[in-house]
Write the structure tokens for this entry.
Amino acid sequence: MKKLLIITGPQGSGNHLFSRVFSTHPDVGGWKSLLDEYWVPSDLEPFAEYWVYPERLTAEHFAEHDYWLANVSVPFVYDGVRQVPKILEVAEQVRSFGIDVQIAIIVRDQNINSEQQRRVRKEVTLPIAQEYYYNTILSSDFSVHFLDNEGFFLHREHYLKWASKLLGFPIDWSNPDIFKFIDQDPNAKYVKYVEEYWLDQQVWYGIQPKKARGIE
Amino acid sequence: MLKLLNKKILILTGPQGAGNHLWSKIFSLHPEVFGWKSLLENYWEAHRIAEPFAAHWRDPSLLQGFDWDQNEYYFTSISVPLGIKETRWSPNLNLFIDNLIKLGIDVEVVVCGREKNILQHQQTRLRQEVTIPLLLSAIDNLDVELKFVSYELLHLYQKRYLKTLKFNIPVAWNDARIENFLEEDSNVKYIHHVDDHFLDECNRTGRTLKTRP
């Protein structure tokens, strides 16, 4: 059975990164132009038109591969207009072709994501995504999983191996090219050192030997 | 030896400061799970004093003498490493798991993660060194399949995220106490504003960028 994986996340949450990772596998029809170019606007993503006009999507689109990746942020900009993509309608349309559909919601630290949106988009659009996911995607009968940027950057191939199994979708996790995508961590510039925190003393005390704490 | 075929244990591990205590609270919530229940009453406790399997992590052969009649589902957590510079030690995850498997217990290993830059700062401040590589090396050497949970996902999607988790023990995703546990996002204090970035203009204009500047 053919399979479509729809990856979606709030704007700036790592949509391009995860699209690149999934599109690297040779068996996956995906956003291949992202493998050659560093950044491509979302309305040039292979399924972009269908997020606005799902009825235009036909079974022929899926002829070439058994596995397909589609990606869209919520909201997304199509031809200069910001809108909420019709993910559910696309998923239902694709399911009507006899293709298995899986949805994965990606996340990036909400504080960083909000900062990024405020700077680039001049407003925080995270709540728009949350509302759509809560009221439409998570309440649908489609299988929905969550993926996180931070887990990928921290646990690397272990994380991808697990994600591949969780989603039942091929990921070229042993391909060193994938890790070139994360050789620079976009979160790093948002994170600063903190001198102290109220819990620190408690932790230091708790990890002293019992004798040092006067406990028999 | 009698095999404990109907017993299941979830082992949570992760780098120091990745939310081990937070996840321990959540996985201990379910009434059918034998877990770190005292942590539900106290905000923070030292692992080696209060975690129910603390002694067994030091000496996994003790698992044989543990009273496994208490429940069907068990939960334990351990960060890698534990302690601070002079007192630091790393648990032998494989030995602990092997002992459980020999007893016939179904074992699942879940690794928790948190934003890497924040983790590095937190460990430097609190532990005087970055210990992430020790955890990464430990999971490299594990013979079991790993699953992952995320601090950032937990804080953003909360019970909606917890509901999607499928492990070998039940998760009380709808427990009202979870809201209290998640009242404060510890990542906030580490985040600062960034004025601009080379990709901003592409995002605003929709211009394709061939290579990274």
The first helix of chain A runs from residue 15 to 23. Chain A touches chain B through 65 residues (CB under 8 Å). Chain A has one domain: 3-191. Chain A has a mean pLDDT of 94.
